[in-house]
Amino acid sequence: MSRNLLILAAAPTLGELRDTLVRLEDTIIFALIERSQFKHNNSIYEENKMSFKDGYKGSFLTWFLKEVEHVHAKVRRYQSPDEYPFTGNLPEPVLPPLAYPPVLVDPQNINVNEDIFDMYVNTVVPGITQPGDDTNYGSSATRDIECLQALSRRIHYGKFVAESKFQDPATHDEYVRLIREQNRDRLMELLTNAKVEELLLKRLKAKAIIYGQDLSSASMDANGNVKTPHESPGSSPVIGGKAEERAKTRVDYDLVVSLYRDYVIPLTKEVEVEYLLHRLDSD
Ligand SMILES: O=C(O)C(=O)C[C@]1(C(=O)O)C=C[C@@H](O)C=C1
């Protein structure tokens, strides 16, 4: 179960944090499925492709992000320690500040959203969408923002994960020693748990396959019951399946797995290491 960051008396446990990361897998997979129903619509991402009546210079997506983040900043989104904006110069909230318990010690206010944005626009979108332009720019960019926000939240959760590892009595002294040495490589080794990563990738593949199935009339019998794999060989669930089977799911499950393996987990670990390297700055 995940916990409300506002009512935390102490740092969440590693188990609680991992539960939140598991839940965010669902959010991310569904957001990717939502985006993949529209074509690539590359015009959204090109700088100065569209002319804005308000004089803005940049891409349609960055303009949209700026507008959305302005509204969200006003309702205190970026005061929450697990929410990080992609744009700058945001307005002050219209509501009084909330008192978040000081769980994180984050003097640098580490924010890797630039890397997340580049990875998402240049690798994820071309991978999950069909090429071409269907002019659904607003709808596509709305889904893009949902994907970006979910990825950003997941990756910056690495700060909480790092804090709980730092506070774990079994490894605390070792972390303190490595932080004092500013030993990035050893910190990376110490915080890595290969077994957890392996299980995560297996679970993610199963989820992407199951959530990605199209339960349309072709996969139902006359009574509206879902056909089991042997009744409907062509549209069977495809755990361990081939490329042509993969194309029948709403999102390419191999792509979801490689997104996590090559970007989401490494960026989370990068956030963890950066956080730890600065953990003792104010001591
Ligand atoms: O669960 C952890 O211990 C984490 O640090 C999170 C995470 C991940 O990104 O999912 C990152 C590093 C570990 O090797 C395992 C998993």
UniProtKB/TrEMBL annotation:
Q: Name one GO biological process term.
A: tyrosine biosynthetic process
What reaction(s) does this enzyme catalyze?
Answer: chorismate = prephenate
Q: Which residues form the Chorismate mutase domain?
A: 139-272
What the entry lists under InterPro entries is as follows: Chorismate_II_sf (IPR036263), Chorismate_mutase_AroQ_euk (IPR008238), CM_AroQ_sf_eucaryotic (IPR037039), CM_II_prokaryot (IPR002701)
Which GO MF term does the entry hold, naming one? chorismate mutase activity
Q: Where is this region: Disordered?
A: 221-243
Question: What pathway is it annotated to?
Answer: Metabolic intermediate biosynthesis; prephenate biosynthesis; prephenate from chorismate: step 1/1
The UniProt entry, under Gene3D superfamilies, shows: Chorismate mutase, AroQ class superfamily, eukaryotic (1.10.590.10)
State the UniProt keywords alphabetically: Amino-acid biosynthesis, Aromatic amino acid biosynthesis, Cytoplasm, Isomerase, Phenylalanine biosynthesis, Tyrosine biosynthesis
Specify the protein name: Chorismate mutase
Reply yes or no: does the keyword Mitochondrion apply: no
Q: Where in the cell is it found?
A: Cytoplasm
Query: Which GO cellular component terms, listed alphabetically, does the Swiss-Prot or TrEMBL entry include?
Result: cytoplasm
**Per its UniProt entry, which superkingdom is the organism in?**
Eukaryota
Where is this protein primarily located?
cytoplasm
List its EC numbers.
5.4.99.5
